[in-house]
Amino acid sequence: MPILTSPFASLDLLRQPEQPNEPLKAFDAADDYLLGQLQADGLPAEARVLIINDSFGALAASLAPHARVSSWGDSHLAHLALVKNLARNQLPADRVHFIPASEPVQGLFDRVLIRVPKTLALLEEQLIGLHGHLAPGAQVVAGAMLKHLPRAAGDLLQKYIGPVQASLAQKKARLLMATPAERPAPRSPYPTRYRLDQPALELVNHANLFCREGLDIGTRAFLPHLPEGLGEARVADLGCGNGVLGIACALANPQAQLTLVDESYMAVRSARENWQAALGERPVTIRADDGLAEQPSQSLDLVLCNPPFHQQQVVGDFLAWRMFQQAREALVAGGELWIVGNRHLGYHVKLKRLFSRVEQMAATPKFVILRAIR
């Protein structure tokens, strides 16, 4: 197991979700560089440190014994990783305060370490949220691997924090050091909204939402083929995003009991706001979770899913395969998983390994809609 060794700690760290023979580490050279820079700059006693977008808890766990640490991020899986990695390294859970990205930070921070996220809108919203939360003499340092560091990240730091100096590259990682300067209180451009004609909805999308400016083409292909006549069926929208599939299903099936789940806190907030706008006080369960990991076995009749094909910058079908397995476990005998997927991903082959029958319900030149029966 790879060990992260820094001036602050030596840690045995796991990624989330776990998979056998995990080929990837729970940290990278950018984490190492950020910790080294923090040590070089100096960490005052009792400093308040804010870690932003700490993928698997590497930064927060390293600093937990040395400072008052808060971790601010949009991934429930990252939160799970932090909790597990603190315990794995015999560090008390209360040494790090986790804040979902859908909620504001509180108080003043002396040091801010940022992992530049894949979605620059998320970074922009977080930098806007830092306004008024930097203590006198605060230092703000962002880091990423070179291949994942767009020029726009430095522009955003310059715009919302202050002058930026880029470090030399080190092990293919780079840091951006921003010196806080007086800035007028910024006005956030988030959330964004767009309208659908069928069903007639206006959808709110917070900063980290996939396809924030308009309906993604996979969901657009899926919507006309959602099942109807479900009665009081128990239905989950797995990886719900802004909730559009679950909301459309609920509108077409007035007695159905809906559960909407996503690992993004901003997605969950978007889905809650969109559900209330479309369906008022109709009962629903909307939660941030590791897919259906916490869903009781055989408690659902139908699962709808537009599965992701990446986790952060890592592309692959591991998450989709895991979601299919979770759906099978959560469905009753005869229950159904409906998915939309790119043709070339060959999801029907994987589904046939888990389900008794798989049928193609519709297709476009790019997508297929599949029904898998447990």
TrEMBL record:
Name the source's superkingdom: Bacteria
Which residue windows are coiled coil? Answer: none
Q: Which InterPro entries match?
A: DNA_methylase_N6_adenine_CS, RLMG, RlmG_N, RsmC/RlmG, SAM-dependent_MTases_sf, Small_mtfrase_dom
Q: Which GO terms describe its cellular component?
A: cytoplasm
What range(s) does the RlmG N-terminal domain occupy?
2-181
- Keywords from the UniProt entry: Cytoplasm, Methyltransferase, rRNA processing, S-adenosyl-L-methionine, Transferase
Predominant location of this chain?
Answer: cytoplasm
Record's protein name: Ribosomal RNA large subunit methyltransferase G
Species for this entry: Pseudomonas mangrovi
Q: What is the lineage of its organism?
A: Bacteria, Pseudomonadati, Pseudomonadota, Gammaproteobacteria, Pseudomonadales
